Amino acid sequence: MSNSTSIQLPEGVRQGDDRLIAISKDAAEKIESLILREQKGEFLRVKVTGGGCSGLAYKMKFVESPKRGDILIQAHGVNLIVDSKSALYLRGMTMDYSNKLVAGGFKFSNPNAKATCSCGESFAV
User: From CA 45, how far away is CA 31, in angstroms rounded?
Assistant: First the structure.
């Protein structure tokens, strides 16, 4: 995995930790393999947007660098970035990964979600 400890924080980017998003080792390994495969950036942006069957949806996208106002979370050799608005909905979340054929993929355990849809990709607060 990449060495995330040597990253210099750009101006206006804050350092976060597992109190914002905890990343399991399985999720980190999958993120690392996707970074290598996709070649679209070293950072995974996790964002909350309006949509989905429960009102809010998780979006993930690889990017080259964080933006001013972002929060950087480093764990198990990977770098996640979250914008400050999304952070309000994600605080305390755990991100895991399952490689099961049925119901596999990234899993979000969000203590802020009052309701979730059956697919686990959207939620309501």
Answer: 11
**What domains are defined for the chain?**
4-124 (2.60.300.12)
Tens digit of pLDDT for each residue in 14-63?
999 999 999 999 999 999 999 999 999 999 999 998 876 667 888 999 99
Place of tokens 């996208």: 61
Task: Answer yes or no: are the C-beta atoms of 113 and 49 closer than 8 Å.
Answer: no
Supply the pTM of this predicted model. 0.82
The dihedral built from the CA positions of residue 31, 36, 40 and 41, taken in this order, carries a sign that is positive
Neighbours of 19 (CB within 10 A): 9
